[in-house]
Specification:
The protein has 274 residues and is α+β, with helices and mostly antiparallel strands. Helices cover 35% and strands 15% of the residues. Strands 4, 5, 6, 7, 8 and 10 form a 6-stranded mixed beta sheet that branches. It has a 4-stranded antiparallel beta sheet with strand order 2-1-3-9. Helix 5 runs antiparallel to helix 6 and helix 6 packs across helix 8. The N and C termini lie far apart (50 Å). 41% of the residues are buried. About 11% of the residues have low confidence.
């Protein structure tokens, strides 16, 4: 039995829903049909991917306390890390991604159990709430419909979830500001040559959905989505400010800042040489 499986069994016995992570800190497609994400489902989606699984097998929805679940066989033998669903255990993790965020927490939040991470700390509170990314610089909230890496039990006495943490998500859910889009796109003839204008509209709608459905790794999802749109339409000149605004608005609704949207778009353009 691997060390990761022993850890998972111990957590499950204490009522903490767990799931295995593969290399890159990504979930498995846990059923046989979805091995290595073969079904095409995105592993960080809020719901299972487009497969015919009898039960959710992707991302946080795969977390379980049942050692008889199919995911406890192959996936745990190949696991690179252990993750858990904080909301499913009645917990909230304030993920502090750098020293500045950690300093802010120490000056602002009630003390609670803390766990050191590679770049910062996890502050864990009793009580579940809505998850959200980038509620302030370097700070994510991981609770319902999200997963967090298990990095040990931590130290300190766990406190009840304070209003100041809940307020971070309420503030993050404010109406979306219009974002002035100034990043250049390709200089083509203005009409999408691939199929029809409906092809572009459908692609933008799918990109919006991909961003909206992201339950974790939102930064990476936004960048990859921008990259995919630009790789298809960035050279033909068919993208307009309206299309970009739709993508930026979807990203802001998920908690991304206007600056991050612009940076992600610019980085995608640079990667593609546009």
């Amino acid at each position: 039995m691997s060390a990761h499986l022993r850890t998972a069994l111990s957590l499950a016995a204490h009522g903490v829903p767990v799931l295995p992570l593969r290399a890159g800190k990504l979930p498995f497609g846990n059923c046989r049909t979805c091995a290595n994400n073969a079904c095409g489902g995105r592993p960080n989606m809020r719901v299972p991917g487009p497969c015919a699984c009898p039960a959710p097998c992707h991302g946080w929805a795969a977390a379980t306390t049942d050692p008889a679940a199919s995911a406890w066989t192959r996936a745990w033998r190949e696991a690179a890390a252990v993750a858990y669903h904080p909301g499913g255990a009645g917990l909230t993790v304030v993920d502090l991604d750098n020293t500045e965020a950690t300093a802010w927490a120490r000056a602002t939040l009630p003390t609670t159990r803390t766990v050191p991470t590679t770049r910062g700390e996890h502050w864990i509170y009793r009580g579940a709430m809505q998850s959200a990314n980038d509620v302030r610089p370097g700070v994510d909230i991981k609770s319902t419909m999200a997963y967090a890496r298990w990095l040990g039990p931590g130290t300190g006495t766990m406190a009840a979830l304070p209003d100041v943490v809940r307020a971070l998500v309420l503030k993050e859910s404010r109406p979306v500001r219009p974002v002035p889009v100034t990043a250049p796109v390709g200089a083509g003839g203005g009409q999408c040559p691939h199929r029809t204008p409906a092809y572009l509209d459908r692609g933008i709608a799918m990109a919006e959905q991909r961003i909206t459905e992201a339950s974790s790794a939102v930064h990476a999802t936004v960048y990859r989505t921008f990259l995919a749109v630009l790789s298809t339409h960035g050279r033909c000149g068919c993208l307009t400010d309206t299309h970009m605004q739709r993508l930026f608005t979807a990203a802001q609704t998920k908690g991304e800042t206007a600056r991050h949207c612009t940076d992600a778009w610019t980085n995608a353009l640079t990667t593609l040489g546009l």
